[in-house]
Structures are given as C-alpha cells and as structure tokens.
Amino acid sequence: NPQQLIEHKQRRDQPPVTADEINRLATLFPDCQRLALSLSLLVGGLRIGEVCALQLRDIDLENLQLHVRHSVNRGPDDRGKYRLCEPKTKSSKRVVPIPKPLAPLIEDHISRFCKDRKPDTMLFHSTMLDDWLLPPTTIERTFRMAREKIGRPDITFHSLRVTHATMLVLEGGTMRETMDDLGHTSLTVAVDSYQRIVRGHHRDTVELLAYRYMPSNYPTVIRTVIDQKERQIDKLRSEVDRLRKILQEKN
C-alpha cells in the first residue's frame, strides 16, 4: 500500500521529542496527569494503556522498579467499558527500572492524588473516585491540545515511547536493553518501529568510525575529530551551566 509506505517513512523521519518540548508539554497538563509524560518517556517507554493501568502495587520505589502487569482498554471488540486487561503481548509484562531522579516526582504524585494507599489503588484515576479507571482517551485529548500549543502537531503520546527507545540507544543502551524496556522480543519490530535517526548523532558516529580505521595522522581526520570534540565540550559546558543555574535558583 503506497499510502502506508508514505506514513511509515513519515514516522521514521519524525524527530524525537526534545527535553524543552517535554517541559512545555508538562506545563500544559493538569497536575494529576503530568506524571504520565515522564513515565512513558523515562520508564520502559510505557504505552498509554499501560500508564493508565498502573496500581500502587506496581511501583517499587525502594528498589526503583516498575512492574507492568496490565493495560487499560475496552476489551477485544473495543466497545465495552474501560477495564484492566492483560498487556498487549506476553512480553509486555515486564519489570523496568525507575530512574532515581524520577522517584521524588512519583512520591509527590502518590501523596497528592492517591489518598487511599491500598495496593490496588490506581496511580491515575478519575477525579471523582479513586477506583475509577482513567480512560486513555482523557490523556490523549490533553496531549493533542498541548502538542498544538508547543508547535509539534506531528507527535502523539506514542511518540514518547519512540523517543525513549531512540534516546536510550543514543545514551549507550544496548538493543537488548531497549527491547526489554519496550517489552519486545522482535529485533525487527524494535528497530523498524521504534528507532529514529538523529542526523547529528548519525554524522558524528560515522566520522568516529572513520577515525578509528583511517590513519590518525591524516590532517582531515585530525580536523574532523577536533571539531567533534569541541562540539562535545561546548555541549557539556552548556549542560553544566544549565545545571548550575538551576542550583542557584533552588538556593
């Protein structure tokens, strides 16, 4: 199908969501839903149904682990009431690491929005009753409105899962770790559906490869490596300056 091929190429060419875009999205989300963005982006690339299905029993802050046990959907015919169901596939049941910096945000969310601390209390729920499931469509609706306001009408909530997979590899994660995080057993699916090409990183990687194999005394090679290292230094300095500024604002 030519149209499907076009749509597939458009998805593959879609750049990952940036940190600035995530921060701007977060400001447009209600407090009770904001954590959903971080969980999908940073914890196992959770699908929206998996996010909505999380219960307090699934959050292990002591060991910094999150258990994916269910998904919220409307059943096999997609016509019934929203309910807790089995995840999309057998491999979707998984245990994924919670980044340490995210733990305080999870604790704060639980403290504010999960008054009933029973194991089966929903992490996200209707604002009317704690045991009411939060429909994925509620978060999707908020996301659609927010993406327009930040100028990224091309992204969906699923883009957070894709960004998780892409950036995990760029930060040094292996394909095996990425597949485990996403709950995939197929390398083809993991690469074809979830990996995005980041052009700048791709260029740097290719040039590094050339540096490894070409004579290191070639002037062109030396200049290329110097340029790359200087870009890396500039990036690190910018990041250090940003973090110092945050510390100063906190003090």
Would you give an account of this structure?
With 251 residues, this protein is mainly α. It is 55% helix and 6% strand. It has 11 helices and 5 strands; from the N terminus they run ααααβββββααααααα. The strands form 2 sheets. The chain has a 3-stranded antiparallel β-sheet with strand order 1-2-5, with no helix packed on it. Strands 3-4 form a two-stranded antiparallel ribbon. Strand 1 and strand 2 form a beta hairpin. The N terminus is likely disordered.
Features:
about 250 residues; Integrase-like_cat_sf; globular; 11 helices; 3-stranded antiparallel β-sheet; disordered N terminus; 5 strands; mainly alpha; two-stranded antiparallel ribbon; DNA_brk_join_enz; DNA binding; DNA recombination; Site-specific recombinase, phage integrase family; hpI Integrase, Chain A
Give a quick precis of the structure.
Keywords: DNA recombination, DNA-binding. This protein is mainly alpha-helical. The chain has helices at residues 2-13, 19-27, 31-42, 48-52, 103-113, 136-149, 158-170, 175-182, 187-194, 199-213, 219-250; strands at residues 59-60, 65-68, 71-73, 83-85, 94-97.
